[in-house]
Structure formats: structure tokens, C-alpha cells
Amino acid sequence: MPIPAPAPARSLLLGVPKQGRRWPGVVRAGVAACLPALAGVALGHSAVAATATLGAFAVVYGEGRAYRVRWRVVSIAAAVMVLLAGVGAAVGAFVHDATAAGGSALWGMALVLAMTVVVAVCAFVVDGLRLGAPGAFLPLLTVEISSALPALGVTVAEVTSWAAAGAVSALLVSMSGLLARPRTPERAAVATAVAAVDAALSGTPAPNARRDAVRSLHAAWQCLHDAALVGRDHPLTRTLRAAHLRCAAVVDGGDADHASDEDDLRPQVPLPRPSIRYRLARAAHLRGRSWTIVARLLVACPAAGLLALGLGVARPDWAVITAAMILHQGPDRVLGTYRGLHRFFGTVLGLALLAALATLDLSAAALVLVVALLMAGTEAFLVRNYGLAMVFITPLALVLGGLGTHVDLVAVTRDRLLETVLGVAVALLVLWTVLPGSYRRILRDADDQVAGTIGRLGDAREPDAVAELCRDLEFDLHASTTAAITAAHTDPAWTRDRWPEHHHLHELGYRILTRHFGPRL
Questions:
Q1: Which of 371, 369, 345, 330 is CA-nearest to residue 135?
Q2: Is the pTM of this model over 0.85?
Q3: What is the pLDDT of residues 316-374, one digit of tens each?
Q4: CB distance 13 to 345 below 8 Å
Q5: Contact 188, 18 (CB under 8 A)
Q6: Phi, psi for residue 420 in degrees, rounded to 5
């Protein structure tokens, strides 16, 4: 029986998926960072105004979401960014004061531990809620950048205030199209899904075209659920339904034994997400994937930071964030290894870009525009190719952390390369040696959750309870598929032996959903 295999290495390393129209989100990211910072410069606050970018990071979390829920998502993300900017600045000030007073360089471990706690908590929440990229990356980057600012004389209050200004800008820019074109996010999601289905059903589809089509369809349906359009006779719903049926006719009519993430597309409308409480309760299972991610982060981040300090690096934060960003997106060893390669080569190219920027004598306003362009470049590639995103993230972090001050470029390049090598090496070592059999436990746990939800659904009688359990079951089936793919990538022989049991449970779950859920599209 065939099982899922990773995409070709060339595709994973060099591929840049289209994912619909990206330029509006890219522009929003740049504008959200630029507006408050330029206003600050105009009012005489110099380069410190660029720290508004820390709060503006929140704009990224609203992309792809209907305006009906976008304001809430961006508001929560903005509050988190402002809080963490303050935390990072406070810890950075403490470490700076302690070392300036002649204290040991090991005081830097306070920053390492703070970053470890932040990324562990954020990664757990992001993975539990299945929020996807950028996940815990931008919160951790906020802590890392803000921790460097007190050494330049920027106070904690200033960092927090400018981050708050950026947060307000993120919310306003994110919602700027509401009055003029209130259905733009839904139209964009449906157009992306239709284009992905067309590409998947073309004569010469790309290797991952069908997988991308299924994911785009699910994302579009969730966007329509968020907009309260599902169940209404709306043109967007009709268009998406037609594309869904075209794709499902191929996927659902294919080889029933070939299971992949395409299996989660059936000729029914996907249900809305379960409650936040349910998703976090599922993540709290110690045998699940979220705790595996957290456990590896708790080992790798302090180890990378301690090694960096031991080798005499002045600031260990880049080693910590390197290790964290390889591990925080999931336990898949194959994909994690590719993320490590992306991190290293992207950092090298990013340092080259920083060297080019260092030759320029930038005014405060020019510095703000450079930061805005780097922010836009990060948004353009962060979800599509992590290596290319790192080309922009590296100078963004270093320019913001230094506020445009002249630095010893040779020393910065040496330290960042050393920390990157340390972070990548520690992360890959942890990925392959800490909890090496976790993929088996995660798949068993995911299948057990499916079986348990099926049992509760069989006992339910109240219509509201049945509807809620159906949402829970579909969520559990998606989680089971993800766990199975990770296991197949990691240990094909073991997964092949377990596959018939997993596949039978999967089919049973969807048959039950079909029975309770009603007729096909």
C-alpha cells in the first residue's frame, strides 16, 4: 500500500509557491511599518521611531482572513507584540546593566531563558490552534530585537510606546479595505483556490499541485465560514463549490488506498473550526505533537545559547532564534532538516545584503524606508520559502536592533555566522535524537482521538451536540492525517505496517461525517 513521501528536495529547497495574489499583503506589511515610523521621524524622534515595526508585525497575522474576524486576530497579535517588546526590552536592560557593571557574561542566559519560555508558549498555542505560519517566529523576533535596544540607550518605555504605535498602525492598515471592498479577502481566497484547482487538473501539474489545491480549498472554505457566507446562496460560495467538486471528483475517485493530505477533501463542505478551548485541550495531551515541539525547544534553545556564550559571542540570541525557528513548526525530521538549510543559506545571503546596506549613509527617514522594504520582503516570502525570507529577516533584525548605528561589520558577520551554525547544528541534533520515536506516539494519539470522538458522536442525541462533535471529528481527522504524513516521512517501514488500521479509521470517520452531515455538494 503506497504511503505519502516528501516532495522532491529541489521543490522543498528552491520552490516558491504562488499562493494567489501576495502583493496586497506585502504592501500592507510595508505600509504598517512605515507610517508610524515616518510620523515619528517627522516629529523629531530620529531612528528610534523605526521600532514601531515591532508592533506592526501583527499585520501579517490578518492576511487571508475575512474582515469579520480579522480585526480580532490582528488586535490579539498586536497586544502580544507590544507585551513581548516590553518583556524583551526589560530583560535586555537587565542583562546590559549586569554585564556593564562587571558581571559575568553568563548573565546573557537570562535572555536565553526568556526567549526559550516565549517560544515554547507561543509554539504550543500556535500548534494547538493550527494557526500555521508565521507562527511563533514574529513574537520571538520581537523579543530578540527589543532586547538589543537598551544597550543603545533606548528605554523600556520608549520601546513599548513605539511598538504600541506600530500595533495601532497594523490594525488600521489591516482593516483599511473594509469600507471600500468588504469582500476582498473572501474573493482573494476563492480565486486562489480556483487557480490552484485549475493548476492541479491541468495536463502537466506540478508535483505538489494537488496537495496545494486541497489546502487552498480548505483555506477558502474557512475564510467563507469566518465571513458567515457558508450556507447562503452567494456567488463566492457557488464558485468555490464548483471548484471543490471538480477537485473532489479526481481525489475522491482515485486510489482509495493512497492516503495523503488529499484524503481530507471529500464532496462535502468542510466544517468550521472547533472552539479554541477544544483545540487547546487536544494539544494538552502529553502524547501529542504540541508537547513534542515544546520539549525539543526546551532542550535546544538553552543549549544553543549556552554554547554561543561559551564560545565568546557577545549576544547569544541569534543562536537561540535559529534553533527555535527550525523546531517550532513541527516534529517532521525531513522538513525540519530542510528548514535548517534554509536558515543557514538565507542568513549568509542576508548578511551580504546587510553589507551592501552598511555602505550607505542613511538618514532616519531613509532607515525607516529600508526597514519597511525589508518588512515587505519578509511578508512576501515567509510562508512561501523560508530561505528567501531569511534574506530579508537577517538585515531587518540587525538594522532594527542597531537602529542604523555603524557597527563592526566583520565582527557582526562572524558572530552571526557562528551563531547560525551553532543554532542549526543544535536544532538538527535535537530533532533527530530527542524523543526519536515521537512520531509513533503522535500518530497513535491522533488516531485514538479520532476513535474517541467517533464513540462520543455515536452516543450523542442532541442536534447541537452532534453538530459540535462533527466539527471536532473533522478537526481530529485532519490532525490524524498530519501525524500520518510525519510518520511516513520519518519511518516509512513502520508507517506502512500501521497504515491499514489508520486508513480504515480515517474512512470510518468520513463515512460518519457524511451520514450526520447530510448530502453531498
A1: 330
A2: yes
A3: 899 999 999 999 988 888 889 999 999 999 999 999 998 888 888 878 888 889 999 99
A4: no
A5: no
A6: -65, -45
Rounded distance between C-alpha atoms, residue 302 and residue 460, angstroms: 47
Joined together, the cell numbers standing for residue 399 give 538594522
3-state secondary structure of 435: coil
Given this model, what pLDDT does residue 263 score? Answer: 57
Q: How far apart are CA 219 and CA 333, in angstroms?
A: 25
Nearest 10 degrees: CA dihedral of 196, 77, 85, 278? -100
What is the distance between the alpha carbons of residues 447 and 425, in angstroms, rounded to a whole number? 33
Say how many Å lie between the first and final Cα of the chain, rounded.
30
Owner of C-alpha cell 515544546: 294
Angle at 88 between CA 379 and CA 358, to 5 degrees: 55
- Beta-carbon count within 10 A of 276 CB: 11
Coil/strand/helix, residue 521 = coil
Q: What is the pLDDT of residue 1?
A: 58
The type of residue at 454 is I
DSSP result, 46-108: GGGGGGGHHHHGGGGGGTTS-HHHHHHHHHHHHHHHHHHHHHHHHHHHHHHHHHHTT--GGGH
Alpha helices in 252-288 (DSSP H): 276-283
- The string of DSSP letters for 341-356 reads HHHHHHHHHHHHHHHH
